[in-house]
Amino acid sequence: MRAKKWISLISVLILLSFVSGCKAKEETFTYPVTEKVDVVDDYFGTKVADPYRWLEDDKAENVKQWVEVQNRVTFGYLAKIPFRENIRQRLTEIYNYPRYSAPFRAGEYYFFYKNDGLQNQSVIYVQKGLDGEPRVFLDPNILSPDGTTRARLVGFSHDDRYTTYSRSEGGSDWQEIRVMEIATGQELEDRIQWVKFTGTAWHGNGFYYSGFDKPEEGKELTAANEYQKIFYHKLGTPQSQDKLVYEDREHPRRYHSTQVSEDEKYIFLYISEGTHGNEIYFKDLKAKKAEWVPLQVGFEYNTNVVDNLEDKFVLLTDREAPKSKIVLAEAKNPAPENWVTLVPEKSETVMSASLVGGKMFVSYLKDASTHVFQYDLSGNLEKEIELPALGSAFGFSGKKEDKILFYTFTSFTYPPTIYKYDIPSGRSEVFRKTEVKFNPEDFEAKQVFYASKDGTRIPMFIVHKKGLKLDGKRPTYLYGYGGFTSSLTPSFDVSKIILLENGGVYAMANLRGGGEYGEEWHKAGMLQNKQNVFDDFIAAAEYLIREKYTSPDKLAIAGGSNGGLLVGACMTQRPELFKVALPAVGVMDMLRFHKFTVGWGWVVEYGSSDNEEQFRYLYAYSPLHNIKEGVSYPATLVTTADHDDRVVPAHSFKFIATLQEKHRGKNPVLIRIDTKSGHGASSVTKAIEQLTDTWAFTFQNLGMTTQDK
Question: Cα separation of 507 and 185, whole Å?
Answer without folding.
Answer: 45
